[in-house]
Specification:
The chain is built from 5 helices and 12 strands. The chain is of the alpha+beta class.
Amino acid sequence: MILHRDERFVVVDKPSGLAVHPGWADDERTAMHEVRDTLGQKVFPVHRLDRATSGVLVFALAPESARVFCEMFEEGRVEKHYLALVRGVAPEAGTIDHPIPRREGGPRVPASTSFRRVWRGEHLSLVDAEPHSGRLHQVRRHMKHISHPLIGDANYGKGALNRDYRERFGLARLALHARSLGFVHPWEGKPITFEAALPEDLRAPFERIGVVI
């Protein structure tokens, strides 16, 4: 679903299960293909979301615009917020500074994520996570680092727990959603924020679990 389009870039709401770019997966269809075909023109990825993550995703509409956006993301001039359902009762708020790789097999580099708890259950928490850098699986790795892995995470979570939530509540995906993305418009100079509503494949299971947002 397209959230915004102008002559420089397009913002979409990516579903879970769809890779962003063919260079990052072997899939025949990716978000880049879907957006390209919808718009009828070439698009250029400027950042990534994990295949299993849903939410706000930006594509540039020209190489020059892509370079501007890549610099903005690299320099931390884009504010990103994710909703993540994690195991256990997370602290009310905090910042995680822990080095992780930029890409699979790469060297560890500095990475920082701030978070605040927005809901707590008996054995679960919903957190708003704000990564200040763009590393591989950053939110997932950082929450695991403080012993609060994401529900539905096949890489860093617990398989038995993931199966339990899938069977009891129908949560059959990674519980991570890119809820908003904001920056100063590079060509207009105005602050702008884009938001993606919680998708049905998270909203319904959250409702069954009793998560209140």
